[in-house]
Amino acid sequence: MRLVGVSKVYGDAESAVTALDNVSLSLPTGSFTAVMGPSGSGKSTLLQCAAGLDRPDRGVVVVDGAELAGGTEAELTKFRRNRIGFVFQSYNLLPTLTVLQNTTLPLRLAGRRVSRERARTILAQVGLADRLGHFPDQLSGGQRQRVAIARALVAEPAVIFADEPTGALDTRSAREVLELLREVVSAHGRTVVMVTHDPVAASHADSVVFLADGRLAGSMTEPTADAVAERLAHLGDVVAAGV
Amino acid sequence: MLQLAIRSVRKRPGRFVGTLLATFLGAAISMAFNSLHDTAGAAGIDDTSAETLGLSAGVVGGYGTLLVFFAVASTLTVNVRQRASEITLLRQSGATPAQVKRMIMGEAVLVAVLGTALAIGPAMLGGRLLLDMFQETDQVAPGVDHVFGPIALSAGFGVTLLASAGAAFLAVRRATRTAAGARAPRARLRTAGGVLALLGGAGGVAATYAIDPAEPGLMAAPAYGAILLSVGFATLSGGLLRTLLRLFGRPIAALTGAGGYLAVHNTRRRAASLAGVLMTLVLFTGITIATICIQVVESDAIEAAGVGKSVEDKNVETLNLVVVGIIAAFCCVMLVNSLYAATSYRRHEFGGQRLAGATPRQVLTMVATESGLLAVIGLFFGTVAGLAGALAFADVRLEAGLPGETVLIWLGTAAIAVTATMATSLLTARRALRTPAIQAVAVAA
Ligand SMILES: Nc1ncnc2c1ncn2[C@@H]1O[C@H](COP(=O)(O)OP(=O)(O)OP(=O)(O)O)[C@@H](O)[C@H]1O
Ligand SMILES: [Mg+2]
């Protein structure tokens, strides 16, 4: 997965907010990357642009060897379906579908064969084997998040993006979710990119990319929670110094 | 809380356009017809004129007002339901259910008063035009002046206020209970209301048989019957919709793909909340079929009698044509109005589906399938309600079955109903799809 010179500006001329400023980033296949930075630094925007959910104003996004071109919404959607899984911070499950139906939805929408067996297996992996017929409003936040992850996995995408997947979870469910993401990388060779505010969560990743004011502000490999926290604390100073 | 209501209306007037339109049109119609009562009651009016006006106001003012009541109430229900998330927010920031209720009801009353006040001018004009029509057809003496008085005003304010406040009360009660974490209240009250309406409707239709066939007010009974049957059917249609989907859900989804699959599940889960939109659809179909058929039968009856049309018959015929036109148009506007409100509110939902991988076309297929289902159910019940009224009238008035024109009338009504339903929801959905999915999801969240 590769971003080259990606910029995104929100709003019109007077109230323009530069959410991303010429970001270039290359993540190898089969890596687990955490994206960190202060609130408003452009993490969600970065993820959405990389996942084809939003269009960057400038720059190129390459996912799984193919360029995410402009095109119509339908073209972008079809591109995403087979290559990209997205775990939304607010889950984005459809309230009128059950857990199992939500999970198989991407396959149905893509017109692919719906393998309930596979969906059941994935849901069992995320610990929801006994919740298949429940509706989202009958689940806890952590359970919903796990359904969202199962849904992102079902189409076997090359890249999975997750926006604060552990933001609303207690320590234990958070760890389960992180271990799940780790397994996706190590067992299936997928690429995972995760936004998080939590240094402990970031320490589960192979590397951390820091973002400040819409620009890259360094990275760290083999992160530990302490080192990440330390770096985050100094992020403001680094930006001020003009790096 | 009243201040909060006023502020809320002033700050976001766009949200109230739908209910304002409903109360405005409803009040205009009921006041225009009821002003004929005022006119008939004025001093120095001759007996024939007074009788003509009184009859017209009694028949049309009567069932027209009933129709307005249900149409306004269902529009209000559709609109207040959309504010569930706002109500949840208010509750979470410390508002008691009573405060929320006062605010939402305050808004509803405020909008109803405003809508009715705005309708006074048009209603005066409409009433005068009606009177002109009676005078041109020599049914009312030329010297009679139009009076817009207490009966018109109390009918206008009464019906819109009652319908608005009542619907808002019920909708907000449901919303606050759901927000409080309780399970959505069982629809016992709704079921009871639906059964009552059906009984009332059956009673209205049956009452036709108890009335003298030559009585000029005869058609009031089957018209009331058709309205109440429509309301009852619409209220209870959720169960039928669910049964239908249990039987045909799979074939529908197989035919229409993933879009239809979503439509089937949405409709199944939300069958009950579709009642508001369905009611306007059933009312439109039912009342249009009933009144046009009744008019055709009435003309046939006069022809069969072999005499020239008497003043009274002419009166009834003019009146009925006007009624059919105005009332059908009103119902059609209400149908479009509530469908527009219901669909434009789904922007957030559409956004979620698009983010989950649905193309805009799949979303539109979903909306089309849902509207199609709605149209089928609405047409079915509207036809039953309308024909029940028409059949009773034909039986009593002519001792005959339905006239041959019924098929044409049905086809025309069905074509308009289906076109209005599909066009409104698809155009509104297409507009909603213009917002990028990410923003559509963010806005309402
Ligand atoms: N739709 C939008 N319209 C205007 N400005 C926006 C929009 N979305 C984001 N922004 C702005 O762009 C900047 C980056 O937003 P973004 O959501 O990417 O931040 P973030 O790093 O994800 O923050 P957080 O950690 O709080 O989620 C912010 O300044 C935000 O105000
Ligand atoms: Mg964010």
TrEMBL record, chain B:
<feature type="transmembrane region" description="Helical">
    <location>
        <begin position="60"/>
        <end position="80"/>
    </location>
</feature>
<keyword id="KW-1133">Transmembrane helix</keyword>
<comment type="similarity">
    <text>Belongs to the ABC-4 integral membrane protein family.</text>
</comment>
<keyword id="KW-0812">Transmembrane</keyword>
<feature type="domain" description="ABC3 transporter permease C-terminal">
    <location>
        <begin position="64"/>
        <end position="178"/>
    </location>
</feature>
<feature type="transmembrane region" description="Helical">
    <location>
        <begin position="151"/>
        <end position="172"/>
    </location>
</feature>
<keyword id="KW-0472">Membrane</keyword>
<feature type="transmembrane region" description="Helical">
    <location>
        <begin position="407"/>
        <end position="429"/>
    </location>
</feature>
<feature type="domain" description="ABC3 transporter permease C-terminal">
    <location>
        <begin position="322"/>
        <end position="436"/>
    </location>
</feature>
<dbReference type="GO" id="GO:0022857">
    <property type="term" value="F:transmembrane transporter activity"/>
</dbReference>
<keyword id="KW-1003">Cell membrane</keyword>
<feature type="transmembrane region" description="Helical">
    <location>
        <begin position="274"/>
        <end position="297"/>
    </location>
</feature>
<feature type="transmembrane region" description="Helical">
    <location>
        <begin position="108"/>
        <end position="131"/>
    </location>
</feature>
<protein>
    <submittedName>
        <fullName>FtsX-like permease family protein</fullName>
    </submittedName>
</protein>
<dbReference type="GO" id="GO:0005886">
    <property type="term" value="C:plasma membrane"/>
</dbReference>
<feature type="transmembrane region" description="Helical">
    <location>
        <begin position="192"/>
        <end position="211"/>
    </location>
</feature>
<feature type="transmembrane region" description="Helical">
    <location>
        <begin position="319"/>
        <end position="342"/>
    </location>
</feature>
<dbReference type="InterPro" id="IPR050250">
    <property type="entry name" value="Macrolide_Exporter_MacB"/>
</dbReference>
<feature type="transmembrane region" description="Helical">
    <location>
        <begin position="223"/>
        <end position="241"/>
    </location>
</feature>
<feature type="transmembrane region" description="Helical">
    <location>
        <begin position="363"/>
        <end position="387"/>
    </location>
</feature>
<dbReference type="InterPro" id="IPR003838">
    <property type="entry name" value="ABC3_permease_C"/>
</dbReference>
<dbReference type="Pfam" id="PF02687">
    <property type="entry name" value="FtsX"/>
</dbReference>
